[in-house]
């Protein structure tokens, strides 16, 4: 089937190679480059049949409803919290995303943060570069081996984290309102999980159901020997509660790859030596980003060629 006459709108910046491939398949309209977006939509909205966007930017109901011919939305990423699924369903618009291909790299990042914050590698690096080692030895840190790894959200990423943590001799505890795995110890609430573990690793989806679910009660339960690791969504954590917990030594430290208002990071978080901050890079490897791009392109191509996408949103 010749898809070149199909109009597809790109809402957000995408990898250059992915944009080139989409441009070979479809007639592309780059919304993200338009200086006057209202005028851009006025000229193109009626013809747009497909949309491609990044998961953290998504697409809201207003945008969906402004595109009367829209049939399919392809998400570059796994998260769906920024996509108005109800608005899409009301019009029978297919939504596809790129699950599973991110899981291994996100789990790698979680383990990296666990090691970094507990062994204080980033702080030790700064200590070494500054010449402070010439003055005194670096203080002892916390061993990760044998500690309890608590995982909030036992989906693909959660299971990948569990596999890696087990290699460090860590018992696995978890909380998940929907999934169950008899190989690990399950807790009925996030607070109870936090109370049981040394590392609380967040791999839950974002959205209204998990908004600021990690609050002061959960952080108090984690306690002053516990570490919080977030490779999920910034919205899951009450940032002010986390800052207060760090300031008052309620928890031992935190490793964060995601934030509530990216790319803005609250200044207080940057002041703590027991916090490791990453710029939302968990899936950002050449290999994984290419797999994500391939799947996102194949989803929208598959829809227009056969009427089906490979990985529909459930």
Characteristics of this structure?
7-stranded parallel β-sheet; 36% helix; 5-stranded parallel β-sheet; Rossmann fold; alpha/beta; 314 residues; 2 domains
Notes on the structure:
- The mean pLDDT is about 95.
- This protein has two domains: about 120 residues, Rossmann fold (3-Layer(aba) Sandwich); about 180 residues, NAD(P)-binding Rossmann-like Domain (Rossmann fold).
- The chain contains eleven helices and twelve strands.
- The protein has a seven-stranded parallel β-sheet, sandwiched between helices. The chain has a five-stranded parallel β-sheet with strand order 2-1-3-4-5.
- With about 325 residues, it is α/β, with parallel strands linked by helices.
- The relative contact order is 0.14.
- The chain is elongated.
Largest sheet: 7 strands, parallel
The first-level CATH class of the largest domain is given as Alpha Beta
First and last CA, distance: 27 Å
Give Rg in angstroms: 22 Å
Q: CATH-wise, what's the superfamily of the largest domain?
A: NAD(P)-binding Rossmann-like Domain
Largest beta sheet: strand ordering: 8-7-6-9-10-11-12
Task: Present the secondary structure layout.
Elements: E1 7-10, H1 16-25, E2 27-30, H2 37-44, E3 48-54, H3 61-65, E4 72-76, H4 85-90, E5 94-96, H5 103-119, H6 121-130, E6 149-152, H7 156-167, E7 172-175, E8 185-186, H8 190-196, E9 199-202, H9 216-222, E10 227-230, H10 239-247, E11 253-256, E12 275-277, H11 286-306
Helix pairs in contact: 1-11, 5-7, 8-9
């Amino acid at each position: 089937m010749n898809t070149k006459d199909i109009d597809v709108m790109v809402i957000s910046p995408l990898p250059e190679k992915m944009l080139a491939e989409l441009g070979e398949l479809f007639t592309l309209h780059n919304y993200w480059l338009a200086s006057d977006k209202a005028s851009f939509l006025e000229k193109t909205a009626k013809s747009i049949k497909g949309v491609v966007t990044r998961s953290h930017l998504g697409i809201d109901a207003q945008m969906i409803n402004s595109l009367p011919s829209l049939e399919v939305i392809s998400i570059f990423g796994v998260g769906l919290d920024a996509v108005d699924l109800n608005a899409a369903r009301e019009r029978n618009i297919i939504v596809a995303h790129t699950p599973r291909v991110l899981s291994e790299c996100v789990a790698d990042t979680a383990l990296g943060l666990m090691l970094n914050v507990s062994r204080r590698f980033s702080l030790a690096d700064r200590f070494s570069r500054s010449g402070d080692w010439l003055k005194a030895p670096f203080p002892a840190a916390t061993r990760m081996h044998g500690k309890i790894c608590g995982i909030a959200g036992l989906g693909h990423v959660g299971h990948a984290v569990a596999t890696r943590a087990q290699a460090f001799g860590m018992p696995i505890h978890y909380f998940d309102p929907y999934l169950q795995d008899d190989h690990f110890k399950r807790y009925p609430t996030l607070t109870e999980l936090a109370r049981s573990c040394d590392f609380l690793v967040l791999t839950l989806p974002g959205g209204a159901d998990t908004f600021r679910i990690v609050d002061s009660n959960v952080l108090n339960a984690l306690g002053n020997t516990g570490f919080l690791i977030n490779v999920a969504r910034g919205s899951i954590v009450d940032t002010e509660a986390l800052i207060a917990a760090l300031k008052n030594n309620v928890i031992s430290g935190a490793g964060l790859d995601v934030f509530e208002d990216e790319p803005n990071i609250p200044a207080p978080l940057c002041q703590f030596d027991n916090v490791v901050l990453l710029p939302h890079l968990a899936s950002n490897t050449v290999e994984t980003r290419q797999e994500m791009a391939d799947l996102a392109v194949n989803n929208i191509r598959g829809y227009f060629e056969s009427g089906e996408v490979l990985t529909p949103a459930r």
